[in-house]
Amino acid sequence: MTGAPNGIDREAVYRRLDAMFDRNRLTNNGPLVREFEEAIASIVGVDHVVAVSNGTLALLVGAVGLGATGDVIVPSWTFAGTVQPLVWAGLRPRFVDVDPLTHSLDPASVRAALSQRGADTAEVGLVVPVHLWGRPCDVEAIDRAASEAGVPVLYDAAHAFGATHSGTPVGNFGQAEIFSFHATKWMSSIEGGAITTNDAALADHCRRLRNFGFAGEGDIPVSGINAKMSEMHAAVGLTQLERFDTIRAANRERYEAYAAAFDSASSTRPSVRLAPVTNAGSSPHGYVVVEILADHPEPARALQSLLDAENVRTRRYFAPGVHRLGAFDSTDTGPLPVTETLAQRCLSLPTGEAITTEDAVTIAGLVLRGIERITDDTPIHIDATPAVGSIA
Ligand code: T4K
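^ thats the input. predicted complex w/ T4K below
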């Protein structure tokens, strides 16, 4: 099942929860949250980490913390949770297309959007690129275009904890970045998020914003919100961080098993492309995403239903693009051809500790046979009894 959480060392969590209850400090920037922030800061090598209750609120607090107003340049090829908090922060999305290979914001399109001036276009107040699938964006080109326009950059790194770009951990780019530690992420605190930055003043401001704007008792200089992470979530997060290398190794093994299976098959007839790691990056492979290059009007949808019949649960992240969702289809967005194509072709496959490496090989085989079935118009016979031991 795509998105199924990785294993958790329950005994270790229970020990932390016992100590938490003994201390009777359950939330409001308690010792476990501060320890979690320090642990993230040392892994990412960033000066400041502000833990919050989820990635969506990290984007909201980050955007408000940066004082962004007007339009925000953002991809449509992402989760709705990237765009919604920006709208709640009072920004207007200006959707921009992505690069067909990296699946992330195309720097040339960002530059074009930044220079776009018109009667109905407000000033651009922020750029929010997404390190989609945990693969780093072309940060140099994007940061350069934004800084030349005097516009801050807040990276959505919800998928990219543990990723690097040119040897530098994601979390250090732009004015700030955000992580999500949701249960479906490879590194999880069940619900959780963080803002990372090397800007001390911004970090202080975000710490106030996440806690109702408090600067002290009876002192609220800025209008804040409650976006705090509880001690309980930090207890789970700290316990999962102890399994950082183990889970990342499992992700890598599954990814390499898929890659080997698809590479050997593609030598004859490329019908599938694993979303590659580009931009001098490394990825934690929390997501395994394939692009189905089959000659079919809706290859991802057709293959998904075939795999479903084989008891393999996949996800069509992120179809349709956000600009096509009801909440956003009123935005006057120009054509986004790459986003539209990726939305028809991409499928997220199970990975991580929810499956074995042998399962990954079996699923890859099912994907390749499925592509043959949807392309050669052979009437598709859905085999009711799962062919392989229920790879849920
Ligand atoms: N930016 C980006 C680029 C993001 O992808 C996200 C979140 C955010 C920002 C916002 O971060 P958060 O505010 O969420 O921290 C999931 C997650 O809810 C969401 O966190 C995530 N992205 C998004 C990509 O996926 P769904 O709708 O796919 O979740 P759901 O419940 O369908 O779960 C996926 C699969 O995992 C299902 O097959 C069931 C399985 N599952 C799920 C959960 C939660 C389990 O087996 N156990 C579980 O506890 O949204």
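The chain has two domains: 10-243, 245-376.
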